[in-house]
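I am writing to request your help with a piece of structural work I have in hand. Thank you for your consideration; the sequence and its tokens are set out here:
=====
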Amino acid sequence: MVAGQGTMRIVLVGTGMGVVLLGLEAGVARTAPGALTPLVSLVPVALSFAVGGPVGAGVAVGLAVLGGAVVGGASAAAVLGVRHAMPGLVLGVSLVRRLPLPLTLMLVGATSLGGLVLLLWMYAPAETRPLTFLQQELEAQVADLERLPARLGPGAGAAWVGESTRLAVSMMRVAGPAVILVSLLVVALANYLVARVCLRGQGFRAFAEEAVPDHLVWGVVAGGAMLVSPHEPLVRAGLNTLLVLVPLYAIQGLAVVRHFFLRAHLPRPLQGVGFGLFALQPLLLVGVACLGLTDLWADFRKIRRAPRPA
């Protein structure tokens, strides 16, 4: 009887999460807050796996994909499965295995990127390669940005809007791939935080102990080497590589800052103000990323020298 009740609970959890995912895709996405849907769209599958295991996740994904096929056809079901189910499962596995936050973001982001490439391959015009189609979409976004100041017309903030638009256009032209990858990392981070709130009290590691995998430093070395290359394609590749790594090392740097805050017994309101300043000032985030990179050798928290349990 107990085993049967446990199975029924898992099925109910999976069913509920599948309905939530289907609602996010079919209902909320058509309303004004639809732009915020990706920030929570991975949570249902992740929670169904964390609470109900593979069976719960299978029920959630199966129900959502079946519902998507009924509502929007095979293409909608494929999009739902690739965009939400695959990275959601990776997020759920990462939560269950208690993987470090930076590694979790890398895995979820890479899965989302793979799903994006797969969708481009499935739905790009037959005569257009997926990456070429993506480049065309980026160029269309850049063109829309360039027309933005003209659409807004003259006004008190016209100069500021024009300068911001030029900066954004330059960034998209030079570092378009990094912008896409960083946006995927941000989406993964938002979903991770929501899932962690839902699973609080489950024995996750403290934020002050988060760390980037040590071997990722070779990506920094490779990016820096390409950045000083005389060949422009290599320079762009190095710049994009470093821009993608900055958020990951910024997380490690913020974890180091959190460690110092705890050692100094700084009140939580002041800690919140400090982290808010980091969030509002991009240059401070770059400095924090450098602190996170330095932690690889300085080991400020002594987490790499801690004795391993037998």
Remarks:
- The chain has two domains: 1-201, 205-310.
- Residues 158-198 form the longest helix (41 residues).
